[in-house]
Amino acid sequence: MSQATNRKMSPVSVAQVAIDDGFWSQRIETNRTKTIPHEYKQCKETGRIDAFDLAWKPGDEPVPHYFWDSDVAKWIEAASYSLATHPDPELDKLLDEVIEKIAGAQQPDGYLNVYFTVVEPEKRWKNLGMWHELYCAGHLMEAAVAHYEATGKRRLLDVMCRYADYIASVFGSNPGQRYGAPGHEEIELALVKLYRVTGDRKYLELSRFFVDQRGQNPSVFQRELEYLSEEDSRINRYFFERNGFDTSYCQDHLPVREQSEAVGHAVRAAYLYSGMADVAVETGDEELLRACRRLWDNVVNKKMYVTGGIGSSRLNEGFTEEYDLPNRDAYAETCAAIGLIFWAQRMLHIDADARYADVMERALYNGALSGVSIDGEKFFYVNPLASNGDHHRQEWFGCACCPPNIARLIASLGSYIYSESPSDVYIHLYISGQAELNTAGTRVKISQQSGYPWNGDIEVKIEPAEAAEFGLNLRIPGWCRKATLAVNDVEMDNASIVRSGYARIYRRWQPGDTVRLNLDMPVERVAAHPNVVENIGRVALSRGPVIFCLEEADNPVPLERIVLPRDAKLTAVFDEELLGGVVKIKGEALLIDDADWGDELYRFGSVTMRPYSFTAIPYYAWDHRMPGQMRVWIRSL
Ligand code: FUB
Ligand code: ZN
Question: Right CATH number for 419-519 from 3.30.2270.10, 2.60.40.1180, 2.40.320.10, 2.30.30.40?
């Protein structure tokens, strides 16, 4: 095992945390009992799993797709995290079977990709820009690490180390090796995981190589075009030749160290930035880290939805200009919000600054969680912030990246709640349950109890194996304007202990010490920067980490005609019966009326309004009832 040297704190494993939470336990159980089996069934029925038997012959339908492997890999990763906290002999056996198939598909030289083994073997490594071999390899590496950590079984890990060794022999700057980078980033962060679990520095070096191949002049993707046929490069040309030759679609417009603006495909970008942060922290590369911080600021200050969704355009599944955040046409792919969570967690570990955790939490409770239905069997790929009733979750997609991505996120939720360092423990997310952490040379059990995200009263119990001195850091969320904190009923002076968004209580902790944190959680109106033209004159409603929306099911009127006065009283009410139990927001608004209009299209004066009582529900829970309109941003006076 390698030791990261430059992080202020380290993540904890899924197995260290037992979640027992009013909000999340049910979602995790649904993920385990519904989503993971459902996704297995889809992978099986669509041929993705049996494709690893390499039995496909020309003429057979369906033809494996060149990133099918990644869907199965993400499913393995999700199932492995689930096993880590919930032993399940049947799932364990199923994983072994799928892994055997994958192992059987490995070629004598270590190569492993279904499509380029059976469908177009002559095209191996020919189109890195678009054909996703390195992306699939990355997902299989992540799966291998997760499976090994959950079960101790090395089968997939050994297979993937062999594959990684082979990749490391092909790509690199030594004589006889070739240049190249993945058009779709992913392997960068995966190689760092492989390095951390094996201690083999070659994987870290390979990750750094791929990170630095980006933004060369000429571009590695331009050089590929010299030998690709017209047919094989059609998709490359579509994305790269829109505006002269431009590979910003895959963040290849500049060397990564010089980048300051998030561009191109959002999932690619988020995975790249995560990989950059990993390489930076493992190699002490400050220049790379500075680029990560600049890119972070650009994304969260200029290009992120209030839901934590990123990548506003469907044309490139990605970023456009700053402040271009349309609501109904938002793309905001589920995978992109998840990628933002991955990146946020990495930045958080490096800088120990709660602003990263704020974004992580925002995306988690909103733009990522919306990606899966409450019953766990339907998924959003695209997460708009307004709908006229024509956008619904689906059971699966031809391009099925999002469903297994949300499954692996939910199954690994425990690893996002806490972090540890030799002198401190951190609580980033308020999710009830227990954790076994290590700090100050001792084991520390932490138990949290709260009704989060619906209320902000949190109790934390500390049980070190023996009394020990360390810092307990509690995140004071950016959304909270008033927090009170007490240790063993003695109130603390927050002003003197809060740094970078964490209240640090450093003391000699005794078994049974109890911390109470109260986060004031009123309903808030959120405004967008005036450059976000669609949201001028509108507000969104939030409470705690949750963003709300209006749905037609509660408000059977044209939602665009609801106008919220500045002084309207807004009340939060918990409704146990609604959508699995949610807080809803009720308030008195106005409704632009048309009762006094005849046939005329225009008339002098202004419109009339009448009082209207509205109800808003959490955004993540929309589209579970009758199809209808939805709006996050509400007109306001
Ligand atoms: O290309 C693989 C995945 O499919 C991407 O991450 C998604 O955006 C979708 O295009
Ligand atoms: Zn996706």
Answer: 2.60.40.1180
Q: Is the CB of 333 under 6 A from ligand 1?
A: yes
Catalytic residues: 317, 401
Q: Is the dihedral of CA 151, 152, 155, 159 positive or negative?
A: positive
Which burial class, exposed, middle or buried, applies to 301 when counting CB atoms under 10 A from its CB (0-12, 13-18, 19+)? exposed
Rounded Cα gap, residues 85 and 82, in angstroms: 6
- Residue listed under structure tokens 């998924």: 379
Domain topology for 10-416: Glycosyltransferase (1.50.10)
Domain with CATH 2.60.40.1180 in the chain: 419-519
Q: What does the alpha-carbon distance between residue 251 and residue 269 come to, in Å, rounded to a whole number?
A: 7
Ligand 1 atom showing the smallest separation from residue 70 Cα = 2
- Residue 438: closest CA among 430, 446, 448: 446
**Structure confidence by residue, pLDDT tens digits, 251-282:** 999 999 999 999 999 999 999 999 999 999 99
**Residues 623, 630 contacting (CB under 8 angstroms):** yes
Amino acid at position 498, single letter: V
Token pair, residue 208, equals 């750094």
Ligand 1 mean position to 114 CA, how many Å?
18
Say yes or no: CB of residue 115 within 6 Å of ligand 1.
Answer: no
pLDDT in tens, 14-70: 999 999 999 999 999 999 999 999 999 999 999 999 999 999 999 999 999 999 999
- Please count the CA atoms within 13 angstroms of the CA of 13 that sit on its side-chain side: 19
